[in-house]
Structures are given as C-alpha cells and as structure tokens.
Design goal:
about 20% strand; four-stranded antiparallel beta sheet; five-stranded parallel beta sheet; single chain; about 230 residues
Length: about 230
C-alpha cells in the first residue's frame, strides 16, 4: 500500500516514514502543502496523511483540493490542536480521520488499517480513477481519456498503461513489465514488450504535443512529462 505523508516537521515525518516502512507500507514524503498537492495528483496513493499546519498551503486547503479531485482516497489529518471545533473543521475539509499529536505509532497504524479496510478503492465497490498530467484512467469502467478525449485500448494495452500509471516517473525494466503485466518470464530474444509500448505510445502520445511515454535506452520505459 502506497501512502503519502505531508508533514513539514522533518523529525515527525521521518518517524512516521520509518514506522510505516517497518510495517510493510510504501510511504513517500512531502514537506509542504504545494508539494503534497502535486504528488497527490500525479501519483497513485492508497491513503494520505497530512498535517494541518503546513507551509505554502495548509492541510485544510490541501485536503479540500485532494477531495475535489480524488473523492475516494482516505485522508488522515494530524495536528497539535485537539478541540472539537478543530476536528469538525478537519472533517468538513474532507478528512476521514483526525489524530492529535503526540500520538503512538500503533494508534496511527490502527487508524490506517481501518480506513484501508473500509475504503471503496480497496474493496472494489466503486470506480477508481488514475491521473497523470492530462491522462485519466478508470480501472473499473476501463475508460481512458487524455485531455477529455477518449482513447480505445485493447485489454493488454490497458493493463500495460495501468501499470505505468501506477508507477509514474519510474523506469520500468522489460523484466519487471513482463512479470507484473504479462505474468511471465521475459525472453530477451523477443521484443513483444517494445511492440506494446509502441502501440500505446501511438494512441496516447501521437496526437498530443506533450509526450508522456519515454524509452530509457538499455534500461526500460518511463511515464513522465517531457516538459
């Protein structure tokens, strides 16, 4: 499970990061609201943890923005303020849970697991939309759009693009793609992965100035913006 932590106190952020890693989660750190907003919209996360008091954009505004664009993602707010009014404000902003500092790591873990268990994204009860730049994919309806224009993909093309959108801005080797998308061992004597990359590149990038699918010579492929 991928978790975004937005916390400007580096000591607290590192403690949470270490605690989550030790319990099998894959956490990512952002130290201000604007960075958190950018990462939340560009990457796919299962849950977001954010402080209320943040530089550049506070946690309440960040929560409202994320909720407007990704209504299903669970959000836990952290704050040193624990009054009822503070909690109501956090929930009104769209938070699913509210944890007052200081807290024990085990309490945070309980809250995280409870939210992940009931969250529609993880139970498959509702659609789940992935976003990267102007590219949008609904994993349930199987609809892919770029700048609002619907793009038709075959089932295997869809699965390949979905894996790239779930791992954006990271070089994916042919071996990894073969194992994760095709569930097979990659034969270096074949080029079927390159063929499928070319298929989806033509459909995703051909009619757009900004290219998203790139080849890293000798390493693999990466979904990133060329701007």
């Amino acid at each position: 499970m991928k978790i975004l932590i937005v916390e400007d106190d580096h000591r607290v952020a590192e403690l949470i990061h270490r605690g989550l890693t030790e319990h099998g989660f894959s956490p990512t750190l952002a130290y201000d609201g604007i960075s958190g907003k950018k990462m939340a919209l560009q990457h796919s996360y299962d849950l977001i943890i954010t402080d209320v008091v943040l530089p550049k954009m506070d946690g309440l505004d960040l929560c409202k923005y994320i909720r407007a664009h990704q209504p299903d993602i669970p959000i836990i707010m952290l704050t040193a303020l624990g009054t009822t009014d503070d909690k109501v404000e956090g929930f009104d902003a769209g938070a699913d849970d509210y944890l007052v500092k200081p807290f024990e790591m085990r309490e945070l873990l309980v809250r995280i697991r409870a939210l992940l268990k009931r969250n529609p994204i993880n139970t498959g009860n509702t659609g789940f939309i992935l976003h990267f730049k102007d590219l949008e994919m609904n994993l349930h309806t199987k609809v892919v759009k770029r700048s609002g224009q619907e793009i038709s993909l075959t089932p295997k093309e869809f699965k390949l693009l979905a894996y790239m959108m779930q791992n954006p801005e990271r070089v994916l080797s042919r071996i990894e793609i073969a194992e994760k998308v095709w569930d097979t061992y990659f034969d270096t004597g074949t080029n079927f992965i390159d063929v499928y990359i070319n298929y989806i590149r033509k459909k995703i990038d051909r009619n757009f100035e900004r290219k998203l699918i790139h080849t890293k010579s000798g390493m693999g492929f990466i979904l990133k913006s060329d701007e």
